[in-house]
Amino acid sequence: MTTDLTFVERTTLLVLMAESRPVKNTELSTLGSRLEAKERKNLVSRQLITAPKVGRGLVLELTDAGWQLAAEEFKRLSVTSKLGGKAFATLVLALIRHLERVGTEPNEVFLPVASESMPPAGDSKPVITDHVEPEVVEPPAPADVETRIRSAYHRLAREPKAFVSLTRLRADLAGLDRRAVDDTLSSLYREQKINLIPEANQKTLTDEDRSAALHIGGQNRHMVTIK
């Protein structure tokens, strides 16, 4: 239940859900409400968010439990909610009705803002539509995993900052330990050195795409770009 959370704590969960990315603590006052240390520590202690220090500041992100609670809070918003005016609440209720009618969860709707390299709405595939056969990879020599990931990305990306599917990236990194790759990708994502997003058109996903996905921040992420 979120009834025992403060207004700011509940707002923070909704903001993090809407942004669907690691958010700097200093950004919250612009996106929603300023989160004081006591409230931040409460959300962390309840394992609803993570708040590691990155650089000089804290970066906040929803955990799986935080995503679930934020989704429940989102669905409970009504025209009597203190989180917004009646017009806002009416729009929210309409969106909730749509989500329930089509059987879609909030984490399939709230996605990161599209970058310049992403395709326009309606495209069935992202930028990397051309099929490229994975290279035959010799058994890897000991190497820095991050360096291998960056090298593979730059070989596969059609242009700077283009999104590359994790399916293709993993094929290029064949032989590297899956856990090592996942840990490195997760670390780079939290440090905001890369961006990981879900495939916008879930119907296009193959079993291979689903298997290659990285579950982070309450979502399965299928595409990566290096900033």
Question: What do these coordinates show?
Answer:
- The chain is of the alpha+beta class and 227 residues long.
- It folds into two domains: 102 residues, Winged helix-like DNA-binding domain superfamily/Winged helix DNA-binding domain (Arc Repressor Mutant, subunit A, Orthogonal Bundle); 82 residues, no CATH class.
- Helix content is 41%, strand content 12%.
- The chain contains nine helices and nine strands.
- The strands form three sheets. Strands 1, 2, 3 and 4 form a four-stranded antiparallel sheet that branches. A three-stranded antiparallel sheet has the order 5-9-6. Strands 7-8 form a two-stranded antiparallel ribbon.
- A hairpin with a 2-residue loop joins β3 and β4.
- The two termini are 37 Å apart.
- About 7% of the residues have low confidence.
Would you summarize the structure shown here?
It contains nine helices and nine strands. With 227 residues, the protein is of the alpha+beta class.
Structural class: alpha+beta
> Ranges with pLDDT <50 over ≥5 residues?
116-125, 137-142
> What is the chain-wise order of helices and strands?
HEHHEEEHHHEHHEHEEE
**Span between termini:** 37 Å
What fold name stands as the CATH topology of the largest domain?
Arc Repressor Mutant, subunit A
Give a short account of the largest sheet: 4 strands, antiparallel
User: What's the total number of strands?
Assistant: 9
Q: Do you know the CATH architecture of the largest domain? A: Orthogonal Bundle
- How many structural domains does the protein architecture include? 2
CATH superfamily of the largest domain: Winged helix-like DNA-binding domain superfamily/Winged helix DNA-binding domain
Highest CATH level, the class of the largest domain: Mainly Alpha
Number of helix segments? Answer: 9
Shape: globular
Instruction: Give the radius of gyration.
Output: 19 Å
Portion of residues within helices: 40-55%
